[in-house]
Amino acid sequence: MGIGPSTKETTLHHFRDPLLDVVSQDDDIDLLGVVVVGTPQDNVSKYFVGQRLAQWMESMRADGVIISVDSWGNSHVDYANTIEEIGKKNIPVVGLSFIGNQAKFVVSNKYMDTIVDFNKSKKGIETEVVGENNVNRLDSKKALAFLKLKMQKKED
Amino acid sequence: MDGEKLLRRLVIKCFHINKVEFGSKNSINDNKLTIDRNVLGELVESEDLIDRIEIDIIKPRQHDKFVNSIMDIIPISTKVLGRIGDGVTHTLTGVYVMLTGIDAEGKQMAEFGSSEGILEEQMVFGRAGTPSKEDYIIHVDVTLRAGIPFERKLPLAAHTVCDKFIQDFREILREIDGRSASESHEYYDKMRPGKKKVVIVKQIAGQGAMSDNIILADDPSGFAGGKSIIDIGNVPMILSPNEYRDGALRAMT
What we know:
Distance between the termini of chain B: 43 Å
Number of strands of chain A: 4
Shape of chain A: globular
Strand content of chain A: 5-15%
Number of domains of chain B: 1
Number of domains of chain A: 1
Radius of gyration of chain B: 19 Å
Number of strands of chain B: 18
Oligomer: heterodimer
Strand order of the largest sheet of chain B: 8-9-1-13
Radius of gyration of chain A: 15 Å
Structural class of chain A: alpha/beta
Order of helices and strands of chain B: EEEEHEEEEEEEHEHEEEEEHE
Strand content of chain B: 35-45%
Largest interface: A-B, 73 and 72 residues
Largest sheet of chain A: 3 strands, parallel
Order of helices and strands of chain A: HHEHEHEEH
Helix content of chain A: 25-40%
Helix content of chain B: 10-25%
Strand order of the largest sheet of chain A: 2-3-4
């Protein structure tokens, strides 16, 4: 549960995704791929998909991960868990999520220190207006800049 | 280890539409898209769960219209050569499909907040995922049968029937001479040896009635032939940047 009208990424959004544009156009980044992961119902499965995802990242020898989510509430459990699993493998990870005033993380961990909040509504809420709280180019650039810093810091 | 290594090329050719109207036959000609309303009967017949379908052409800047909850905005695209992620794709610009849904008892097709209302107030235009104010919108409004518990098969039926409607235009679009495209974009999946290796992860929804995603359908941003993220157990699935960019995901959320 947890995709509201304003955070929902439409099929058109995926087709013209600004996050992909920004990351793939950066000459300093070797973009390995786009991984999609779902949100199973029960907690055991939530942990399972998060762990599998983190193992993929390690096996791909990823230097860094940007993880974006277009839902909140219960799905932030999946999100926090997946970020933690990636973080525990010592892979720098940056997030993109709607937070605003309404969607403060229900669970959190130390790897969630760089999350770009893409709320665009004045009140910081799920406005039920389609397209309003969506990732744009600026959010994507911020996320990539954070990730570059984190990857650099790890090297130093 | 320097220099880029090109893996494969994707060409997306855009065909701009500057007029959409009803007519006696589905067609795309001289930047004009014509919709035959008579196809609606067949579409309704084809899905048990559908009570009725209405199609409306929303003209640019004419958004003072009540709409049911917006289930998706879908580009009209088709593969001409190759599979999703390489080869050639044709897509229409200037027109997008908007799917809305309700059931015959008045329940909106939405689970976590719904977006019914005056279109102008219910959508921010000109975002990556929404049409601009200058675009035409083909509004497909589906009414599902009453008295059926709200579960996954209802939104699936709405998406299925909407996809069947779009498919006719994909077939037409596939046959259009690529040289008449308004724009053509080239994208390469590439390796950049020595650079920082980064992965984009998209957490997509895969549970409940309203939250499913279809991956790698037969046509870009399509439905038929794809795999549901729920059916594959929500496990991580890797797409190449070009597969993702070529409409590998259909968001049924």
